[in-house]
Amino acid sequence: MTRRPAPAALLPSILLAALALPAGAAEPRRLAMPDMPLHDPYIVADKASGTYYLYTSNVPLVSGECGIGIMAYTSRDLKSWMPPKVVFRLPEGSWANGGAWAPEVHAWRGKYYLFTTLHNEAATIATPSASGWPAYRRGTVMAAADRPEGPFTVANGGEPMAPADRMTLDGTLYVDRAGKPSYVYAHEWIQAGDGTIEALPLTQDLKPAGPPKLLFKASGAPWSNGQRPVAPDGTPAKTNVYVTDGPQLYPSKDGSLLMLWSSYDRNGYVQSVARSASGELAGPWEQLEPIVRRDSGHGMLFDTFDGKRMLVVHRPFKNARGKLYEVRDAGGRLEILNQRVDLDGDHVMAPSPPERDHCKPTQ
């Protein structure tokens, strides 16, 4: 149950070669999705510019820019992608020193808001953890920009949206039928043991407006598989733990409210869906069967410029790539129509990768 590995350490040399410029090239080599290292993908279809933005954690060997942050690939057709540019950087003096996971970008009241999860393993939390492992500061921060390409600047002093004494991640924005925004996130299994999905009411300025409310626990899914992971120092968890990852809300055509979220079944990481038949964020929530398995998950829905509804997930969990599926709203559930392998494109690899990571000093 390893959490997101450092992506730069996992890049195969053939991938790095794909990003190199051939001699005499006038512009960067375009990429196909199998070329692109990404975890927790999030796609914004910006109709104003006719551009798809795919956000993921910064990989310096790919973006060419050092540091912790978020980068974005861009495309006009979901098949041919431009190399990524960094749109958010961890500001100096931040409480965090790692992460930049699970980026999401939402348009709200004339601006674009980036949500991303940061952490600091040295900043421990005094609250006892159910897993028996030390809990430390982890939380989703918000940053704002005038355009989807950024640059994004942290809001709320760079502090997490959820209470700082909770180890949280993968925050998303949801606006209900009455126009009231809420912040929905996962309470990390390291601290909670049985990971949860919780919701925090927000003001129109996207500031907390009340205490968090529990929506459901990971163990409530009949297919969920509890595990007893072992920490890097060899310490096993005190009890079976259950993972909650990547919530995203979607109002279904039958009036119910669906939530994408990910966890583990007996065979690995899965993309699943929960349903609130009332159509309200408060639920009650019913757990449906996973819609994509095969070590896949942390997905999100978006609509293409030609009106197709798409799901993007990462697979596999380590050394992840994006996978696209066309889906249908079947009324209270999502139906996978097909995997869009036609969008994987053609990739011609350049002959040689960079010799070293320019962000690391020479020995």
Automatic annotation (TrEMBL):
Coiled coil: none annotated. Keywords: Glycosidase, Hydrolase, Signal. GO terms for molecular function: hydrolase activity, hydrolyzing O-glycosyl compounds. GO terms for biological process: carbohydrate metabolic process. Residues 1-25 form the signal peptide. Pfam families: Glyco_hydro_43. Belongs to the glycosyl hydrolase 43 family. This is Glycoside hydrolase.
